[in-house]
Design goal:
It holds the Pfam family LRR_8. This protein has helices at residues 2-11, 131-139, 165-171, 174-220, 224-238; strands at residues 18-22, 25-29, 48-50, 58-59, 72-74, 82-83, 97-99, 119-121, 127-129, 141-142, 152-155. It is of the alpha/beta class.
Length: 239
């Protein structure tokens, strides 16, 4: 009976996943298990969860909602390109280590890590270095030795590509650059509309002047009596 009760929960685990106990902490390992999503039915008393070396593409909202005692979460070496806001909801109380290194993260909102106190490893991802990444880096606590691995894979400023992100933001405030660029774009747009309005007014005035000139030439070509009548009519119309 005891053996059956022990084996029954294990039967629900994905292939390659198994529970264990390490240093007195309840651990659930799914390393290199060819997973394409965060598995369900993880024991809710798990303290350490290893999902590294899989093919998980994204983290949905409430992905770890039922793991209130989780202390360490390893998601390194996956294919994670998107993290929904609320993916780590419920982990803020206990989680102290989150490894997202060696994934496919390009841009992530800081809101996805809202209220997390864990030290985060974001190294070795193809980051787009912009204001959004700057806000994210300032919102989380990085694992100290991982900061040099956050490198600009792409950037609006070509000179930043290939540089460590912390080096870039030490010299440049990317959020101020973005704000200035936005302000300049708005000014250019407003100037463009203003120029179009002025151009139309100039065209309209010149067209009216040309029409008036042609009409006067026409009046001059008429016999004097008819011309006076036409001139009177034109003056009345103008008034």
């Amino acid at each position: 009976i005891l053996l059956g009760s022990c084996l029954h929960p294990a039967a629900a685990f994905p292939k390659g996943c198994y529970p264990s106990e390490e240093e007195g902490l309840k651990t659930f390992r799914c390393s290199n298990a060819q997973l394409t999503e965060v598995p369900r039915d993880i024991p809710n008393d798990t303290n350490k969860l290893y999902l590294d070396f899989n093919q998980i593409p994204f983290l949905p909202r409430d992905a770890f909602r039922d793991l209130p005692l989780l202390l360490e979460l390893d998601l390194s070496h996956n294919a994670i390109a998107r993290i929904e806001t609320g993916a780590f909801q419920g982990l803020a109380e206990h989680l102290h280590s989150l490894d997202l290194s060696s994934n496919r993260l390009v841009s992530v909102s800081k809101d996805a890590f809202s209220n997390l106190k864990a030290k985060v490893n974001l190294s070795h991802n193809p980051w787009l270095c912009d204001c959004r990444l700057q806000e994210l880096i300032r919102a989380v606590e990085l694992v100290a030795e991982s900061s040099g691995g956050i490198v600009c894979d792409s950037s609006a400023q070509e000179e930043h590509v290939g540089k460590a992100f912390l080096q870039v933001i030490a010299d440049t405030d990317l959020c101020n650059v973005y704000k200035k660029t936005t302000d300049i774009a708005m000014l250019v747009t407003m100037f463009g509309w203003f120029a179009m309005v002025i151009s139309y007014l100039v065209y309209y005035v010149r067209q009216n002047q040309e029409d008036a000139r042609r009409h006067l030439e026409y009046l001059k070509s008429l016999p004097s009596k008819q011309r006076r009548s036409e001139e009177s009519s034109t003056i009345s119309t103008v008034v």
